[in-house]
Structures are given as structure tokens and as C-alpha cells.
Write a structure and sequence with these properties.
By secondary structure, this protein is of the alpha/beta class. The chain has ten helices and twelve strands. An eight-stranded parallel β-barrel has the order 1-4-5-6-7-10-11-12, surrounded by seven helices. Helix 1 packs parallel to helix 2. The radius of gyration is 16 Å and the shape is globular. The model has no long low-confidence stretch (mean pLDDT about 90).
Length: about 250
Amino acid sequence: MLAKRIIPCLDVKDGMTVKGINFVNFRNAGDPVELGKQYSRAGADELVYLDITASHEGRKTFIELVERVAANLNIPFTVGGGINELQDVDRLLGAGADKVSINSSALRNPQLIESIAKNFGSQVCVVAIDANYIDGEWICFLNGGRIATEKRLFDWAKEAEALGAGEILFTSMAHDGVKTGYANEALARLSDELHIPVIASGGAGTKAHFKEAFTLGKADAALAASVFHFGEIDITDLKQYLHHEGIPVRL
């Protein structure tokens, strides 16, 4: 069995790492490059950097950050936020990113997934899905969870896979930042219905929550932010715990 991956996520706003609850109420969590170095040393398998205010000016700052991250880190990292066309992907990969994550732009223009896969390879294209469970259905949202769409989680994930997505990063909006565990039922269904890796996001509060994401949720990787940023869970300790619980991880 492939090793399960632990992925810290760093939301970047104005050059600093921030973390919110349910996509709002942000607080500062530190320098994104220094945090990345700490996580790399602690055994993180990958990192995700998201430019959460990807305005035109923010994009320039973010490219410079990506270059600094690439110069200081030796683990793969994914970048997302404000990626709307192939030129954006080209610039970010050129700055040193290993993969890109697209969310709103993929919902608005699904062919972008196909274009990225054809030009750079499926392994570069992570499709992030923010979804909320409303009236018995998982509804996909745009713009950082602000705008509901007609798309349903499982249909959209399968469509993204068919278009060439290399991975699906699923965030349950109701679980985000509240630390009560991942949306394991939905994760398990995604893992059963897709042939590409599924990354769990939203809800990590304890080491056991990671174990549940891998066992109950059948996820290939688990992403978290605040529990790492604010020192609640140490990645080295987490991996030792998972190893002792029989979950395959890279130590």
C-alpha cells in the first residue's frame, strides 16, 4: 500500500500565513517560508500554498513567495489561488511549484483542467473542491466558499477526473477549522468512485482524526492548517502515532 501523505496547508494573505474558521475570521500564523521549512524538517510529505486574495497585485507578491519557497524547500509543493489560464500555471511552475490547485476557475471553465493536463501532465493538476452539505446534498461552492453552484460534489469530482485532474482536494466547508474530524463518509465515497488520489481537508483537531481520514475516509492524503500552525499537533509525533496505528506513512 502506498504511504499516506501528511500535507500542511498555508493560506497566504499579503505575504503572511493566515488561518480562519469556516472560511472567515482570519488570524496571522507566521512567515510562510519559515513555516514551510519547519514542516519539511518535521517530516511533512508535501505542502500547499494558497493565495487567498489573488488580486493582480497579490499575484506578483505570490510569485516571489513561490520562488523563495522553492529555494528553501526540498519537498514537493502545490500552489493555488487566482489561476485562470495556462500562462498562470506556466509562471507558477517556472517559479518552482510542483503542482497547481484550481477551484473556482475549474468550475467556471472545466476545459482548463484538460488544458493543464495536456500541456503539463495530469500530475500537475489538483482540482480543489469546496463543498457544503445542504438539504441532503453536497453542493460545490465558488470564490472561497462564497457562491453556491449547480454542481454536486461526486458528479463534479468524476467530471474533473475525466478531464484529466491528477488529484482531488476535497474541503468540507462545515468542518473547516472547527477541529471535529473530517467528512469521512463523503471522503470514502469519493475514494470509492474515483481512480485518482483524494486529499482530505477540513476538520483536523486530533491525531485520531487523521487516522479516521485514512481508515474510515479512505483518503490518500490528509491536509491541515491550524493544528500545525499553532503547535497543537507536531508532524513528527503524528507520523509516529499513525505508524503505531498501522497506517503506512513515510517516517
